[in-house]
Amino acid sequence: MLFLDFIWLVPLLPALGAFIQLLWGRKFSNRAVSLVSVGLPGLSFLWAVGCFLQLPRLHGTPFTKILYTWLPAGAFHLTNGTISQLNIEVGFQLDALSAVMMLVVTGVGFLIHVYSIGYMGHEGGYYRFFGYMNLFMFSMLILVLADNYLMMFVGWEGVGLCSYLLIGFYFQRQSASDAGKKAFIVNRIGDAGFLLGVMLMAVTFGTLNFIEVTEAARSGRFAVGDSVITAICILLFIGAIGKSAQIPLYTWLPDAMEGPTPVSALIHAATMVTAGVYMVARSNALYILAPTALALVAGIGAATAIWAASIGLAQNDIKRVLAYSTVSQLGYMFLACGVAAFGAGIFHLMTHAFFKALLFLGSGSVIHALSGEQDMRKMGALWSKIPTTAKTMLVGTLAISGTPLLSGFFSKDEILWQAFASPYGHGLLWFVAVVTAGLTAFYMFRLFFLTFAGKSRVPHEVEHHIHESPRVMTLPLVILAAGALVAGYVGWPKVLGGSNHFEHFLERVFENPTMRPSAHQAWSVEFGLMLLSVLVAAAGFYVAYHWYIRRPEVPERVAAAVGPAYRLILNKYYVDELYDALFVNRAQNIGNAAAAFDLAVVDGGVNGTGWLTRFTAEVSRLWDLWVIDGLVNVMGFSVKLLSYPVRIVQTGLVQTYALLIVLGVLIFMGYYLIHF
Amino acid sequence: MIPTQYYLFLGTALFTIGVIGVLTRRNVIVILMSIELILNAVNINLVAFSRNFQAVDGQVFAIFVITDAAAEAAVGLGLIIALFRNKETVNADEIDLLKW
């Protein structure tokens, strides 16, 4: 039990890296930074593997490790009148679900850190980048390893913060810092819903611990369709909408491509955006009790999948296509959760982490080779020039399109099947998902052909510098490609002869007594649908091949033919403009009004006090000058005035003085003569 | 016998003339002469009263006064010469250095 007892090392090692980098990293050389900030997540991954390998010893019960009590809240009333003690601890829980998440986060995270050594090697702020990346790993691991909703929320907020910091990494660029702000603010809107859901949960269950809430939900205390549970589920899902970029809070994710490519790969493909899916899967006991909420999840998931795929068809920036692809694939994951196929959703999460991270890192490699070019209209014919990148990108593209035997095929097909056949599913959901699969295949191969095949549209000066990325960047690509190839085999479906180990592994987490039993469908139906989805994907591939290899002039003709429709999806359905007019500008107006008030009234008051002080000082000065000094001067002046008559006496002539003596004597004589 | 008052009147007249001379004459030498007049007027007074009271004291005092007057005249003239050396004038109106 060695690894499990110290499970807290898994999040702590990256935290240590973040701490070191953000306090002292400035003074370290790039080599030292790399050693610390890639070595520590590497160790974390190894420890996570150790924990995973020790998990079977517990035979399905979750492992809990409590470090200390964080909020020993007192007694309070629940909604049903009983009194409960709410205790939030800082604790870690490891069961099958969080083990899968932990391995994905540490494994893919470590590979992306290695890749970043090469990609960010020549950038300024190297230590800052790795500090934030480590901080993100720490927060994400807290999120997936937490044993209660509040601690998960701490990780939830932490990843939001790191997302902001990393999107706005090139903060001197206005667009980057705006994108960071947008991501954080839109995320926060979701978080408000999440918090409300957590609060409602606290007063309903009296606890926020996963195990306790799940047990209470499965105990039969609540009827299926209970309105309070439905409210909790919808509020929690609002948080997931914000974090995992579903309709209507997805607008931040395409803008988040302003950040460096490894950030897009880690945060906006493999890990942070999947936090919402994890949260819904973790709360499966609650969602099974609220079929309305499940329907909402599935509906929004499917709608987002097809909406984002349609926008991705026309984008010209390589990273934007991948961003919309991520939104679309997240829609698939929520669709799976919404039809109560939580295992399938997590399976797709895992395979998606592999091939989406691969695609993003590969696109980063392409951008690196083309000295920063991201517009696919200026790429082409790169297959022979950057072969490793090209081959791994091909694997990723095949995987995401659902090519049989690659990982994406197994996970996506599982979702499609469940959408059709699950007691919570619906044919319409399946149909939307299949159409989206076709669109996905099309736009991904469009991306591939525009970038690597066809004629070179690369500008002359850039063409000279095209070079394959260094080994530190291509090795993670190869490893991820291997994962994208084989990761699906753990979920080999029964219909093709396997035993679906992955679902089996996660079974106990998703056992719910109130779940509707699935009707037994004939295997031929499943096989038929599988074949259909492969054909749709093939059709998408073929159209892309025809349009971008055989007859490259066709796309422009089609775009011209459907003019307004093309412009509509090119401009992302003008959703950003709509939000700006409705919310953003209004918020800015309020901000401006508040600023004007601050300037006029508050600052005015302060300035007024200053003016008053100076005014009183001036009055004082004038008083001093005219009145006080005046009095003194007047006195002097009057003395001077009085002296004039007196001065006359001093003539300087002795005769005058003699005269005065004589006069004096005469006066005395006169006086005595008169009186005697 | 000449009444004593006649001598006193003479003395008074001389005294008055002397005083007026001191006070009004411009030439410093004339002022000195006027001072001598005053002193001599006093002498006449003294001698008149000596005759009146048949005592010799008055006459003795008059001798003293004459001596004193002589000394004083010498000193006064010395002053005038020193003054003349500095100021080139014997006009009392022009010696007003202590004027305000």
CATH architecture of the domain at 26-91 in chain B: Orthogonal Bundle
The arrangement of helices and strands of chain A along the chain is HHHEEHHHHHHHHHHHHHHHHHHHHHHHH
Number of strands of chain A: 2
CATH topology of the domain at 26-91 in chain B: Helix Hairpins
Overall form of chain B: elongated
Gross morphology of chain A is elongated
Given this structure, which CATH class of the domain at 26-91 in chain B is correct?
A: Mainly Alpha
**Tally of contiguous helical segments of chain A:** 27
In N-to-C order, the SSE pattern of chain B is HHH
Question: Separation of termini of chain B?
Answer: 55 Å
Strand order of the largest sheet of chain A: 1-2
Distance between the termini of chain A: 141 Å
Number of helices of chain B: 3
Proportion of residues in β-strands of chain B: under 5%
Approximate strand percentage of chain A: under 5%
How does the major sheet of chain A shape up? 2 strands, antiparallel
Percent helix range of chain A = over 70%
Structural class of chain B: mainly alpha
| Rg measurement of chain A, Å | 38 Å
Query: SS-based structural class of chain A?
Result: mainly alpha
